[in-house]
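User: Can you model how iron/sulfur cluster sits in this protein?
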Amino acid sequence: MAKLKIALYWAASCGGCEIATLAIGDKILKLAEVADIVFWPVGMDFKYADVENMADKSVDVCLFNGAIRNEENEHMAKLLRAKSKIMIAYGSCAYEGCIPGLANFYNRQMIFDRAYIETPSTDNPEKIFPQTKVKVPEGELELPELYDTVKTLAQTVDVDYFIPGCPPEERTTWLALEALIEGKLPPKGTVISHSVKALCEECPRTREEKKVKKFYRPYEIIPDPEKCLLEQGFLCYGIATRGGCEALCPQANMPCTGCYGPVEGVVDQGAHFLSALSSIIDSNDPEEIQRIIDDIPDPAGTFYRYSLPDSLLRRARIK
Amino acid sequence: MKRITIDPITRLEGHGKITIFLNEDGSVANTYLQIPELRGFEKFCEGRPAEDMPQITQRICGVCPEAHHMAATKALDDLFHVEPTSTAKKLRELLYSSFYVTDHTTHFYILAAPDFVMGPDAPPAERNILGVIAKVGLELGGAVINTRKQNHWVIQTIGGRPIHPCFGLPGGVSKAINEEERAKIEEIAKSSVEFAKLSLKVFDDVVLKNKDYLNLILSDTFTQKTYYMGLVDKNNKVNFYDGKVRVVDPEGKEFIKYAPRDYLEHVAEHVEPWTYLKFPYLKKVGWKGFVEGKNSGVYKATPLSRLNAADGMATPLAQKEYEKMYSTLGGKPAHYTLATHWARLIELLYAAERMVELSKDPEITSTDIRNIPTATPDEGVAIVEAPRGTLTHHYITDERGVIKKCNLIVGTTNNHAPLFMSIKKAAEDLIKPGIEITEGLLNHIEMSWRPYDPCMSCATHALPGQLPLEVTIYDAQGNELKKLSQGIS
Amino acid sequence: MDNFEPRIVAFCCNWCSYAGADLAGTSRIQYSPNIRVIRVMCSGRVNPLFVLKALSIGADGVLILGCHPGDCHYLEGNYKTLRRIPLLKKMLKQLGIEEERVRLEWISASEGAKFAEVANNFTQTIKNLGPSSLGPFK
Ligand code: SF4
Ligand code: SF4
Ligand code: SF4
Ligand code: FES
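Assistant: Here's the modeled complex, given as structure tokens:
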């Protein structure tokens, strides 16, 4: 059998997914037997022209991490889509926009103003902003245009599979690679993880009845090490997050923040968590309910911590 | 005018593009380094709960998330006016030292070593970790993998997750370690010390004993005289986790020493229209453009800078190596950017030694890991040394601890001006009328950048992971290696 | 702006509010034609997702109408709603959507007049606010 040709690319990414992509330990051996890396700008000496010269559909699989934030990201996403038979959104940024997608609370101008004018260490009396085209004495320099809105990969090109996580755990990556290697591909559009259910199913903490009179922030109290964090009033996102990571954060006494994305069939992770949370509030009195809700300082930023670009509203409206 | 573009610069963290303009006669007219990305963390952190900052800001960089996690966590201590417990501080520093071991290992073997070991003129397909392993031997390759793997275990055990840890809280950490874990960490720390010693020996054998390489290090092309910045402890020894920022001038004299809260008096950032990344400089000297010397506010914050800015290392073996380096390089400060690789190995040894000390500390397994804040949050600043430079986090919140303003001066950014200048200088020195522009030549130019930041840890994760595959490759006298390289290119 | 005719979605629970709306109709009480009624079995069935979906595809306002507290046919359904909607509104506000665009009201089967009043009043509120700014993305 011919070796699989794999391309790896990062768009607007922190690099964590790059690390995770191949952090599959000894199993890399097995992968190397069956796959060749044909494009990987981060780890090897390649230039963009190398991709442009490839024939269409000559790459078997493209593992694409990072969100679409500017012109260059979009260009590469389209180029790699054309060159690849299978396009995989790898990690939360490509899949749902992730934490960098919180930029969708603001727009480009607000981000520019903060970065290049307002920050107290910035010294920019002439109010210079980066430009997409700049004349310098020797010629013209170009920068890719930064978009107002962070987009997911699937909002940009057709995507075949999604691998959740920020970054995906080793076991999740391997699950996907194994399917590719063995040619046992799930139906198009599948989110590849060990679980389709909520993270709570694999969390070792004990659950009783969830009823909460007060929400706590993680620094306010020390949680009981055995009991469900949500039942103790922490905003643990496990209840609305796809399982697969084996509950790493709750095991470290920290609430899950939702990086594995929505459970199967849920279209808007934030709305799902909102629903789940409001149903455990232990009150029927409007004033008391309001008081309890006031314990949550940043509902939008918490419920959409990883998925604002992929949510129904996609971004905040700015007047 | 002719234009050469190196796009993207490979083996580095973040995206980057170098454009070199040539004159008609083929000499260099000017060089530009452009960073095409901005993600806007300083804006979108506004409105978020302060306690989430360790986990939010680490998504700036998945290569050094621990640095952001640590700077943010310490900024929370300051913001909430709470002193962490002694054990919490030690656990944080232990994780951080372990992180330094992995990061410096990655950098040296994956990013820097290909240039030194294979030679900058080797074909691109061989100029990677596979080539390095083929040349220096599998045993070392195995040690590289093992060191990284074990230290990742340490990071996950203390920090909760292997990439993007989740344990930092104002006043402490979320989880303690037990005796069994401690014992294993001590063992890993000890073997990391051995690994660091071995790495310094490799550097000695391959680089220092080779006159050509030593000359390359000492050459004018890779020399740059600037101010140097680094975090120091109360004895002016290098420290990664805590202390004051010390800056020395190009002659090595202390210029300033400041506490994190005073950073705005000392550092400012300049903006250019052709790149998204700003250029920090020393406020008291001023921005004089992309020039070296005492009259220019340009400073560096690299491993070599930290050694230049300090009076020594706080652990015995690292101190010995520190002395050796400066005596070989002809004294302090050293202005040779390629010596940054050497300094990095000395820091690797220090980090490993520090791990041993902390893992043996009787307090390290205590469960007294958190102090609960009681004061009203308002403003917090913290500084740590990220492997790629001094990292500053500054937050202002409302009385409920929701971020109103956030300012970040990130590791790599510190070195933006000097690395731009290094690239420019290398281009001017190497591209001359009548000289053919080869791959190797362009790589020499990229080499001028790598000492600062080329950090792609992922590279390490990937290719050394393939090491067992190299067994076959090696046995077949490199044939397989060649084949794989062909597959790659 | 003057001739802005808002599109408003009203989720009405089957047992009280829908009957109330019906009553308004059969009693020939005039109410705003901008209201599009969607019948659900219980206000508790109105997943926040429905509201977001309505807003995302062009609704300028969303009404959620249920039985008075204590009268829910499914006993607890409207209490669930009572807890959800304030949290949803708080979240929407952060996303730049005025809280007034979403309103929760209790309307019994006999309150045809109240239904009309709420419908008219809400339509006026939305008219004053202007069109929802949910536009295309850049
Ligand atoms: S998903 Fe997380 S780890 Fe991956 S690139 Fe985005 S921020 Fe980094
Ligand atoms: S809510 Fe959190 S702590 Fe509770 S069971 Fe689910 S994942 Fe575990
Ligand atoms: S517990 Fe939640 S946030 Fe943590 S790794 Fe798992 S899915 Fe991600
Ligand atoms: S049936 Fe009317 S609110 Fe539940």
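A couple of observations from the model: The pocket of iron/sulfur cluster (ligand 3) is lined by residues A 199, 241, 245, 247-250, 256-260; B 161 (CB under 6 Å). Residues 9-14, 454-489 of chain B have pLDDT under 50 and may be disordered.
User: Helpful, thanks.
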